[in-house]
Amino acid sequence: MKFIPSTGLLILIIPAAVFAQDAVSERNPVSTWSSLFNGTDLSGWHRQKERGQHGDGGHWGVTDDGVLFGEQGPPGSGNGGLLLTNDTYSAFELSLQLRPDWGPDSGVFIRTDERGGGWQIYVDHHDTGNVGHIRLETKAYSVPFRPWGFSRIDPAKPDLVMATDARTKNWPAGDYESTCTQQQWLAAWKPVDWNELRIRCSAGHLPVIETWINDLKVCRFNAATTTHPQFHRDKALKAVAPNGAIGLQVHGGKNWKTGDRVYWKDVRIRRID
To answer: What is the pLDDT of residues 137-176, one digit of tens each?
Structure first.
């Protein structure tokens, strides 16, 4: 986008791709927005039905002020897992508010099966964590697409600094069709407040997944064209389905302390074509 002065007239030139990118969902919705969480109970949701790589589902509930929360079950036990929608989705837009404590490892899963496997959008709010990028995560086959992470300057203070993720620092460009810079992400994220996460997933067995944090475009990932050196399309086609539940994750293991939670509200979705 640029400004070109001409004889006293200021002309604003905006690339057509800017309109095209953010108009897709307005042009192709096949349903209106609907709420996935009623603010009262877990109607429309269930814990995963089969034990997966993180546990049997963790512990989920609703606070007195109408906020959905997840924690290990029992808290601090190492037992995690996913809370899944009863309905399944293929191509959609998802919008939600999230406020993770510092320390938990969480995520939003899409096209998820009953063992908790699917495409993950990271919500890893801890040292060398990431929020907004993509992972393929199933028990049989997993690949992290993490260009960078973040850490705290002082463990007792919320200020964040960006950090290189050792798993991805040497991988070539092409993992994403686009991604924001570390500095842009750091300016957008609110470490002790509510943040909006928006996800758009296209149709097709190998989807295009786009994410936004507080209106910042974090990334556009194309599973059909990514050049990630550990990603194999034939394995992905076998590992994940073209349709599945929306899932909220409590990671298994001992990183979660007793009392750690991730909070969610204003969870909405609409199908697109």
So the answer is: 999 999 999 998 999 999 889 999 998 877 777 777 889 9
Between CA 63 and CA 261 the distance in angstroms is 11
| CA–CA gap between residue 33 and residue 38 (Å, rounded) | 14
Distance of alpha carbon 198 from alpha carbon 212, whole angstroms: 5
Quote the tokens at residue 68: 């959905």
**What pLDDT, on a 0 to 100 scale, did the predictor assign at position 15?**
43
Domain 31-271 maps to which CATH number in 2.60.120.560, 3.40.1160.10, 2.40.240.20, 1.10.340.30? 2.60.120.560
Query: In this predicted model, what pLDDT tens digit does every residue of 3-26 receive, in sequence order?
Result: 344 344 433 444 444 434 444 444
Distances (CA, A) of 260 to 76, 78, 255: 8, 12, 10
- Parse the chain into domains and list their residue ranges: 31-271
